[in-house]
Specification:
Elements lengths: L5 H8 L5 H10 L16 H10 L5 E8 L5 E8 L4 E8 L5 E4 L3 E3 L14 E4 L2 H17 L7 E6 L9 H14 L7 E5 L3 H8 L8 E5 L5 H7 L7 H16 L6 E7 L7 H14 L2 E7 L12 H13 L3 E4 L21
Helix pairs in contact: 4-5, 6-8, 8-9, 9-10
This protein binds iron/sulfur cluster.
């Protein structure tokens, strides 16, 4: 893998180049009508040829693409430098446009027991170019499929990997996307299992763009959470409460709430006791939204909560004054639903 980013390779290739050309270099890769360096007419022929011979236009390469029967979800298996595979998903959102789900690592070290990616272990972090290029890949895909709506309005970091364990590259990706696309801060969500040292860092990091954050909580009961998220620990819940209080005090407003993600696992975290624990935890914090996620089968010992249980859990939280939503399941037939991403070429 080249240790240099795309822009560093450019600087090495053209050490004497004017600053405006560097800016152009960063911008042109986001032009949907350009599909290779040869198309970049703002550069001289000589420059285009040099770029074409030296710097790949994309750092990800399409391997397998699957569309759901409903045509509302597309999953792509992409090859990155070194031959590793990652997955990224295009999902139609409520407004009829697209949300993309990007991966931040090849595999993941967190081993969440309901998650297919967790079974892979961690191979490596993705570079910022490799994360940005998942967005560019989908822009290109939509250009090639004029029958589909052609706008990506949201990006969620909910694919393979734990974004906070790849902090610098995720931060660089956020800055690049916000600076070069029409995505605003409230249209991007970074989802984390709750790596508290990194969450502390971002709170005081002037370079961290304050996009939306979602914490994969899955249980407010420490023992149950540890069964679902093995990297959790005894005092995680009080520490998360403390961090969330300080975060919301600093950034909280209508644009910056926090979301707790909660995958509904039958008989594990969906009882009245768990609903009560969750409500009590949230009441200590304030502006938290809860997103209940149906469990998508990944071959393990879990099964999804019944509709009645989900309904009762939802009602309990709502009647306790908590904003709660239920995520639609999409792409289950192509293993693109939440927790099902597992990069393999045998698909
Ligand atoms: S749920 Fe997220 S953090 Fe947990 S193993 Fe899967 S990818 Fe990693």
């Amino acid at each position: 893998m080249s240790p240099l980013s795309r822009i560093e390779q450019f600087n090495q290739l053209f050490p004497e180049i004017q600053a405006f050309r560097r800016k152009q270099f960063v911008e042109v890769v986001f032009q949907p009508t350009f599909r290779s360096w040869k198309d970049v007419s703002v550069f001289s022929k000589e420059m285009r040829e040099k770029l074409d011979a030296s710097i790949p236009w994309m750092s990800v390469k399409e391997s397998v693409v699957k569309q759901s029967a409903k045509m509302d979800t597309v999953k792509a298996l992409l090859e990155v430098e070194g031959g590793s595979m990652i997955e990224t998903v295009l999902m139609q959102n409520a407004r009829g446009w697209w949300t993309i789900c990007v991966s931040s690592q090849v595999g993941c070290a967190m081993r969440c027991t309901f998650c297919a990616t967790g079974k892979m272990g961690l191979t490596r972090n993705l570079t910022a170019d490799e994360i940005v290029d998942q967005y560019r890949y989908w822009v290109d895909y939509l250009q090639m499929h004029p029958e589909l709506p052609n706008r990506i309005t949201n990006v969620v970091f909910m694919g393979m990997g734990e974004p906070m364990s790849n902090y610098e590259n995720v931060r660089e990706t956020l800055r690049t996307l916000l600076g070069n696309t029409d995505l605003g801060q409230t249209r991007i969500t970074v989802s984390t299992v709750g790596v508290l040292p990194r969450l502390e860092t971002l709170m005081n990091d002037p370079l961290w763009p304050h996009v939306r954050l979602a914490i994969s909580l899955h249980s407010a009961d420490a023992k149950t959470r540890k069964e679902i998220v093995p990297t959790s620990y005894d005092d995680f819940i009080p520490k998360l409460v403390d961090w969330s209080q300080r975060y919301l005090e600093k950034f909280g407003n209508r644009r910056h709430h926090l979301t707790f993600e909660y995958v509904m696992l039958k008989g594990i975290n969906d009882t009245a006791h768990h609903a009560k624990m969750l409500a009590s935890m949230i009441h200590k914090i304030g502006n938290i939204r809860v997103n209940l996620i149906p469990y998508n089968f990944t071959g393990g010992e879990f099964s999804t909560s019944t509709s009645k249980t989900v309904h009762d859990f939802f009602q309990y939280l709502e009647s306790s004054g908590i904003t709660v939503t239920r995520r639609r399941t999409m792409g289950e037939d192509i293993d693109a639903a939440c927790g099902q991403l597992y990069a393999s070429t045998n698909q």
